[in-house]
Amino acid sequence: MLLNPEGPVLYRLYQPEDFSALYAIEEACFEHPLRFGRGYMHRLVRGPGTATWIAEQDGQLAGFAIVDWAREARQTGAYIQTLEVAPNRRHQGVGGELLRRLETSARTAGVHIVWLHVDAENTPAIRLYQAHGYRREGQENHYYARSRPALIYAKSLETPDPRPLTPDP
Ligand SMILES: CC(C)(COP(=O)(O)OP(=O)(O)OC[C@H]1O[C@@H](n2cnc3c(N)ncnc32)[C@H](O)[C@@H]1OP(=O)(O)O)[C@@H](O)C(=O)NCCC(=O)NCCS
């Protein structure tokens, strides 16, 4: 039995050996049609212009998040591919910290704006994005499936983050 089942959460970048545990979180968080396929997820985490942040607690993956970016005509835009926290690790700030780290990686890559799709019924995620300054920019009907719309949220990264990242112990 763990004496301290909720030890400190450590944040670091993804390494290839994380993949199985990362995908187990995907399976715990999403079902079809929202779940990414294993091959698609593999391509995401290995893609160029990508940052995948990992949260670890008690020696286990507690969550992860993926952002990728590309230079467009006038600016560099980033897209949050996913942000996931294991069900038993939620409500302790892990999702918020992963989101902050994605934004810091994107800023470092020169990103001006970050955007994402979120299931219109996913209240916890929408609350999190709104609390972190994301504003609703639109909606795509039938995005996840027929009659399963996605909301589009975006945030400008033009203003520097006043809270620098502190190194993990
Ligand atoms: C959305 C998701 C990532 C949020 O993760 P999380 O780790 O629970 O997020 P946080 O802990 O940072 O914030 C969630 C809530 O916990 C609260 N919280 C944060 N730290 C806390 C603490 N120490 N003690 C108590 N509550 C806390 C936050 O204020 C927030 O409350 P609110 O929802 O009332 O605003 C998580 O629910 C999830 O993985 N969902 C399934 C996957 C998913 O839908 N991802 C989004 C894809 S677009």
Low-confidence stretches: none
How can the largest sheet be summarized? 7 strands, mixed
Percent strand = 35-45%
Counted beta strands: 7
From the spread of the alpha carbons, the general shape counts as globular
Oligomer: single chain
Named CATH architecture = 3-Layer(aba) Sandwich
**CATH H-level superfamily:** Gcn5-related N-acetyltransferase (GNAT)
Q: Structural class of the helices, strands and pairings?
A: alpha+beta
Structure overview:
There is one protein chain. The chain is an alpha+beta fold. The protein has a single domain, classed as Aminopeptidase. The protein contains 4 helices and 7 strands. The mean pLDDT is 91. The chain binds coenzyme A (COA). The site of coenzyme A has 19 residues, from strand 4, helix 3 and helix 4. Coenzyme A binds next to strand 4, helix 3 and helix 4.
Secondary structure elements and their pairing?
Blueprint: E1 9-13, H1 19-29, H2 38-46, E2 50-57, E3 60-71, E4 76-85, H3 94-108, E5 113-119, H4 123-131, E6 135-145, E7 148-156
Parallel strand pairs: 4-5
Antiparallel strand pairs: 1-2, 2-3, 3-4, 5-7, 6-7
